[in-house]
User: What shape does this take?
Amino acid sequence: MLDVQIQGCGGHFHLTSIVQVLFCRYYGSEFINHDRYAWCQREGITFTRRRPYQKNDSAHVEQKNGAIVRPLIGYDRYASKAAYAQLARVYDLARLHINFFQPVQQLIRKERRGPRVHRVYDRARTPYQRLCTTSALPVARRQELEAMYQRLNPLHLRRQLETAVERLWTLAVPPRGQEHTSAGG
Assistant: This one.
């Protein structure tokens, strides 16, 4: 494995982790050629591309960021390894809370009635409930998810999530110009 030192980042990084960040988050398909794609498949790097003829897919991802991530995490900056570990903990807890206990209504169709558009939504269900009603889930995996669901306590999970977020906030980098100063300074 090739180690690379990036100036200003204060440490050595594996090239694979850098490539995962660069390829999958910052560059579009114009950066990816067949050789890079094959290399990423060998390395287990997953590509997510927008759906054909759906140019606004990124907007849907950003909508989820605005509806889930930003209210939970906020806009603070986190730069330490401890903050990274805590953020991972928060995301793990949030994933469980949202997927198992936060119902969502999905738009089924829009009907135009004169100048107004009437939106028809389905019954609110959690992502877990929606997944269980499809035939895409193998029986063994469904049983695993059911066992996980039965082990979870929504109130305890919510308290754990709140505690983890409070701990994360203590690890935030203060905004420029608001660094800690000594008392009486």
Q: What stands out?
A: The longest strand covers residues 107-113. Residues 75-170 form one domain. The longest helix spans residues 81-101. The radius of gyration is 21 Å.
